Amino acid sequence: MHLLSRPRRNRKSESVRNLLQEIHVQPSDIVAPFYLLPGANKKEEIAPMPGIFKLSMDLIASEAENLHKKGIQAICLFPVTDPSYKDLYGTEAMNDNGLIPSAVRFLKKELPSLAIISDVALDPYTTHGHDGIIDEDGYVNNDKSLRMLKAQALSHARAGVDIIAPSDMMDGRVFAIRKALDKEGFTQVNILSYTAKYTSPALYSPFRAALNSTPSFGDKKSYQLNPSVVKDAYIEASQDEHEGADMLLIKPGLPYLDVLYRVKQSTSLPVGIFHVSGEYSMVMAAHQKGYLNAHEAFEEALIAFKRAGADFIFTYSFNYFLYEKHTFC
Ligand code: PBG
Fold first, then answer.
1. Is residue 160, in this structure, part of any structural domain at all?
2. For residue 207, how far is its CA from the centre of ligand 1 (angstroms)?
3. What is residue 166's predicted lDDT score, i.e. its pLDDT?
4. 207 lines ligand 1 (CB under 6 A)
5. 92 in a labelled binding site
6. What pTM was estimated for this model as a whole?
7. Which domain holds residue 229?
């Protein structure tokens, strides 16, 4: 039959498909998140996240070295804080010799060319699991929290961290942290702002289980974004840009591709996405039941993130690509 256009011709073979492929996911697009345990030679599996372990810094160093050899350029760290170090104010977050600063010093010595990203927020350090300081009425006090976040960021910078990632969602924290960093001479430390971090008790729950940081009362709706409102993402993005952020992050991942796409169109800063713990759990649970193949599901997700405009992707699926199949899409 004579047809002028046969779009299938451009999909007829592997070679033609590869030639015309628009989206390529590279190891250098990936940020690997790690849950950091105190001590040495410690490894604990996270039940809702099969294949992901909480690790002590020495074991993170050896895993990160393998990842770096395969082309991964950055990892980020989340601390599993000993409950005896938690208090109402998250004081331990400012400790220059705390878990994160110690691990940063160690990792920068072992793997100087790997970028280390540290999370700035109080939830792993507070007894109530909120990201800031609580007023008597239970409200998370913005300006009191900023003081703690600045001190926390400085303790990471003194340890030699490359990139500071505030994930707390307080107003004005990018400016406060930028000013504090510059005042101490850390003008080269980047700020990667969690710009549009949507509230998601479901999709953050494996993370909170791993860190034992589930809020003991209330929820995070007064600071994390409302999933039913898109315009706050624009407001947050333009504020972060004016406050001196170097990179923006959208979170969670697949349910927020529209937000990623829109924010990417509205800024000239690099924009990343966080494919969060609950998204990893969903895929792995289905994989373990034989309902789908995790590698295929992760590959499709990563392509979708790049198609929507992501410049970088935080994902726990890094293992799958680097060890299981040794391939990248
Ligand atoms: C907290 C923080 C959270 C995540 C990263 N930083 C959870 C929360 O806000 O309760 C979630 C990451 C994930 O689920 O993978 N500041």
1. yes
2. 6
3. 98
4. yes
5. no
6. 0.96
7. 24-324
